[in-house]
Design brief:
Elements: H1 11-23, H2 28-40, H3 46-53
């Protein structure tokens, strides 16, 4: 397993990270690992996910018959 050192982290970021870790009942180190893992996980885009979720709804579809537009007198 790799080790990562982050230098120059502002104190307010460290405090916020510590608070976030506490609210998730984790150590700061575990919180950083979770944040990094979430940031690099591959994600499906909305369209791909929507197509997969609606695949069972697809079927044969025929558009309805349409009539020609009526003429309009602009005089």
């Amino acid at each position: 397993m790799a080790t990562l050192t982050i230098r120059g982290l502002p104190e307010e970021i460290k405090r916020a990270l510590k608070a976030r870790a506490a609210s998730n009942d984790r150590s700061m180190e575990a919180e950083v690992r979770a944040i990094l893992q979430s940031a690099v996980e591959p994600r499906d885009d909305f369209v791909t996910r929507w197509l997969e979720e609606t695949a069972t709804l697809r079927g044969e579809f025929s558009p309805p018959d349409r009539s020609y537009a009526r003429e309009i007198d602009l005089s």
